Amino acid sequence: MRLTDLLHPHLDDVTSVVDATSGGLRLDHYLHLPPGVELRRHQEPVGEGELMLLCYGPDLALHGAEADCLAALERMRPGGRGLIVFGHPGTELPYHRLLDSLVGHRCQVLHAASLGYTHLHSGAVFACTEELLPPHDWFGHPLPADGFATALRIADEYVLADFVSRSQRARLIDLERAAEETARALETARADGLVERLAAAVRDKDQLSTELRRARQRTGVLEARVAMLEGSTSLRIGKALVSAARSPKRRAARLPGELYGLWRQRKAKGGRPAGLRTPATVPAPEPQADDRFHLAHRALSVTPRDRLVITGVLTDGTARDFAADAVVSRVLPHDGRLLVERTDPDVFLVQLSACAAQEGPWSLTGTGLAPDLDRRLAELVSQARGLGRTAVLWRDGPASSAPGLSLLPWDTVLDGDTGTALCRLDPVTDGRDRLRDVFLQDSTRVRLARLAALTGGPDPLAERRIAVLAAPRDATDVARLVAQTLGQLHRPAEVIVADPAGLALGELTAASVAVHAGPPTAPWVADWTDLTEDRPDTLLLDLLCAQEFSGADAVGHTPAADDYAFVPALKPLLVRRSLLDSGTPPDSWSRAGQRLFAVRGKEPS
After folding, report:
1. CATH topology for 3-144?
2. What is the pLDDT of residues 233-263, one digit of tens each?
3. SS3 content of the chain, % helix, strand, coil (to 5)
4. Does the keyword Coiled coil apply (predicted)?
5. Which helix (H) or strand (E) holds 415?
6. How much is the pTM?
7. Closest listed residue to residue 326, CA positions, set 504, 452, 513, 441
């Protein structure tokens, strides 16, 4: 929620907002006050027709001190209102520090809500009153009630909310205790050096295996050379002469015959005369087995690593869907060790359904019916962890279908399906709402982002970042730009303006939207130069849904209101940044081979 969404419903009959903040944070650009309401700063009491603005948080220089906030409450008079914004997260809000002062100065809290800023996390609206006022609902509207009914509602809600939150607090304490015990166990394991010793042992084993393989290759070459020398004529003549010299009486008489036989064999090799008997030949040595694996091409990326690299055991469909946003290499039982070593993956991933299937190279792995495959997979998991890679089991089926997988030393286990690629949905059958839900929560890219967060790899959701090009001219344009940007269900990552220093765009920065001049850095660009145009809150969400569904280079509207169809020309609303940087005019995009996809605007409610 924005600060304006919390404040404006309570500005009825208010003519001035009194800024009583004491920190360095200036909230002027967050308020967007309507005409007739002015922002003032004074030390007088705040009464009828006025609203006091307060701020309180952990950073004293930014949010102000608690004592200043409590002192400002002493200026409240009956009929006056107030808004206090907190720099604390909602779960850590120290409301008990202000509660006594609020009650002591007859201030009733009417509405509290979370705020979507980096340094302001929540806020509360209160009023100074002599009688009990009706509370407000989630949308800031007052609830119809009289004094006694209001008191009963507040009392009942307090007891029930405290009952619910009590179990949640107990659960939180248990989780914190479990986290502390896990951290102590990890520290003990690190102190013992078990992980480091295991990794060193695996590296030593791999090094010894490599040296043994090279020694065997050298031995094979030497054996071939020895066999060649033993079969040569020169060596045989030398042996005959040495034998004759050692035993002249017995061997000297046979020497001429042996030499003649050697000469005759040599002549027979060059061209044997007819009628001569073929001498016995020395059997050729058996060729040495080549123990090197000759792999089929899997996947290769030589660019800077900006995509998640996955190596593992996957089904055909999952590998195909993941390959749209990641570099995927599927291992086989005979080449797994080499692929894990050579592809240098971010994660070694094993999908349960690929092991429990009845067909495939890893079929029946983990079921106990293929012990050789179980052993090979255990070796791959140990190798990946020894190389410092994260080993993940994606349990997209019942664990009982392959119980042996749960016994392996995984770093992380993910439960649930691997997501749905948007291109597999039918916009007509599934509907626009279904596309939006899958895009936001259940798409393959969202699942990969979860995997990347666990492994520290590149985030696939970075491909959904949008830069907005804008040219606000006055305060009205700035207010519309801020409202349209922060109102989008898929919020832009950056706003590009010519002179950000001269514009009041601090609320965008506080909401984690980068504001700067110069070229955009996001993969997609939306032109919002015309700020008089009405843009629905689903605009960017629907455009990105259409792009991810089609894989197009530009998405927009057509005069014929084409919907989810490739077209030769359109009004571009979302364009790939590389296409925009090329300088090609939009009317020639289709002829240049760019894919243009049309989508209608917001559906009527």
Report:
1. Rossmann fold (3.40.50)
2. 666 677 677 677 666 666 666 667 666 666 6
3. 45, 15, 40
4. yes
5. strand 412-415
6. 0.73
7. 452
